[in-house]
Amino acid sequence: MEIQADKILDCSGMNCPMPVVKTSKAIKELEVGQVLKVIATDPGAPADMQAWSRQTGNELLLSEQDGKTYTFHFRRLK
Amino acid sequence: MAKSDPDAPRRLAMIASRGTLDWAYPPFLLASGAAAMGWEVSIFFTFYGLPLLSKKIDALVTPLGNPAMPMRMPFGPEGFQKMDIPMPQLLMVLPGFNHLATNLMKQTFKNKGVASVSELRDLCVEAEVQMVACQMTMDVFGYTKEDFIPQISVGGAGTFLDYAADADVQLFI
């Protein structure tokens, strides 16, 4: 499934808690309804991104893994 | 200070009581993570946690008396880097050994993409994490407010408890 992203954030090489910290900063630069794509290599990212989505109320549209690379799509909801 | 609004953000209250490099990570790491989740955070720095508020963080780590601490090397082939190198306790009384262990840990963390303690603290400052220095231990150890970064405030047990009473998560580190 191809989702159109309004902004892409590359967190490759970053470890906990940086992907979550960067994601929270990046999503604030979007309008409500826009989509942020996040790329990460931290193996803890899938669990942390899901938790971040639950805590902040921003929707996790898609969580994908390709080898050691993880891709997430979030829609800013508030 | 009381949290009466049900829609108010979640709150994390922490006490940071230890000042070695390994123990410096959890409060700043959790605080920056919580702030990223939209939580309010306050950290109360007391006893050996106080120097973590110094303008320059000089935290060291020692394997002395810490037999559970593996020494992993930040260089060499992958198999070598994964080995836990046993460190004879007697060796650690040698001058400079704590600095050696500290540099090894810092380099390993850096190689793994982990932010430094100073970087994490900067993120906390930016995210308006409240940092409170314990007045009593400042007096005991001879610190003044000028020894610390300007973003901190000073308080006592009452200050922490007042905040912690309405926190969703409270941690003693």
Would you summarize the structure shown here?
Chain A is α+β, with helices and mostly antiparallel strands and 78 residues long. Chain A contains 2 helices and 4 strands. The termini of chain A are far apart.
Describe what this molecule looks like in 3D:
The complex is a heterodimer of chains A (78) and B (173). Chain A is an alpha+beta fold and 78 residues long. Chain A is built from two helices and four strands; from the N terminus they run E-H-E-H-E-E. Chain A has a single domain, classed as 2-Layer Sandwich (Translation Initiation Factor IF3), CATH 3.30.110.40. Chain A has helices at residues 18-27, 45-56, and strands spanning 7-11, 35-40, 59-66, 69-75. Chain A is globular and about 30 Å long. Chain B has 173 residues and is of the alpha/beta class. Chain B has a domain at 11-57 and 116-172: 3-Layer(aba) Sandwich (Hypothetical Protein Ychn, Chain: A), CATH 3.40.1260. Helices cover 35% and strands 14% of the residues of chain B. Chain B has a five-stranded parallel β-sheet with strand order 4-3-2-1-5, sandwiched between helices. In chain B, helix 1 links the parallel strand 1 (11-16) and strand 2. In chain B, helix 1 (21-36) runs parallel beside helix 4 (117-126). In chain B, 30% of the residues are buried.
Alpha plus pi helix count of chain A: 2
Multimerization status: heterodimer
| CATH-level-4 superfamily name of the domain at 11-57 and 116-172 in chain B | DsrEFH-like
Spatial arrangement of strands, main beta sheet of chain A: 1-2-4-3
Q: Helix-strand pattern of chain A, N to C?
A: EHEHEE
What is the CATH topology descriptor of the domain at 11-57 and 116-172 in chain B? Hypothetical Protein Ychn, Chain: A
The overall average pLDDT of chain B, rounded, is 90
Poorly predicted sequence stretches spanning 5 or more consecutive residues of chain A: none
CATH top level of chain A is Alpha Beta
Spatial sequence of strands, sheet with the most strands of chain B: 4-3-2-1-5
Task: Please tell me the CATH architecture of the domain at 11-57 and 116-172 in chain B by its name.
Answer: 3-Layer(aba) Sandwich
Q: What fraction of residues of chain A sit in β-strands?
A: 25-35%
